[in-house]
Amino acid sequence: MEIFPGECYYFGTQKVSWSNAEAYCRSMNARLVEVETEAESNYLESQLRVIHQHAADSTTDQNEVSYWLGGNDIETEGVFKWVKSDLPMTYTDWSPGQPDDVGGEDCMELRGAFQYHWNDLPCNIPHHFICEAPGFESSNTIGKK
Ligand SMILES: [Ca+2]
Ligand SMILES: [Ca+2]
């Protein structure tokens, strides 16, 4: 945790829609995670690899490793932004070919089957999710290393 002092992550084991995941995070005074740097992205991936490596079933289906992130393109199709901060994305980690909006995909996930890169998919699909509770926020730090 020392990479992000003051920040706390919660990896939801239940599977819910994107909006229910966001509501769950808010109920904990948190939010769906907004991934602003490569370091944060790498940190989340490393945590998920540990979580799923230690799962009782060692043959975890990577398609099950799917976690909602705090962004969508509901407001303007094709323009993804972080919902809580209402900011466009300066750092992105999309899987090759994503976002593709096949059949109308407006919410963002971090997907194990896509080498832990991002994908867009329908918001009503039940998935795990990651909440983030920042210790403090400063817009001045966004986009800087
Ligand atoms: Ca879309
Ligand atoms: Ca997609």
From TrEMBL:
<feature type="domain" description="C-type lectin">
    <location>
        <begin position="4"/>
        <end position="132"/>
    </location>
</feature>
<dbReference type="InterPro" id="IPR016186">
    <property type="entry name" value="C-type_lectin-like/link_sf"/>
</dbReference>
<dbReference type="InterPro" id="IPR016187">
    <property type="entry name" value="CTDL_fold"/>
</dbReference>
<dbReference type="InterPro" id="IPR050111">
    <property type="entry name" value="C-type_lectin/snaclec_domain"/>
</dbReference>
<protein>
    <submittedName>
        <fullName>Perlucin-like isoform X3</fullName>
    </submittedName>
</protein>
<keyword id="KW-1015">Disulfide bond</keyword>
<dbReference type="InterPro" id="IPR018378">
    <property type="entry name" value="C-type_lectin_CS"/>
</dbReference>
<dbReference type="InterPro" id="IPR001304">
    <property type="entry name" value="C-type_lectin-like"/>
</dbReference>
<dbReference type="Pfam" id="PF00059">
    <property type="entry name" value="Lectin_C"/>
</dbReference>
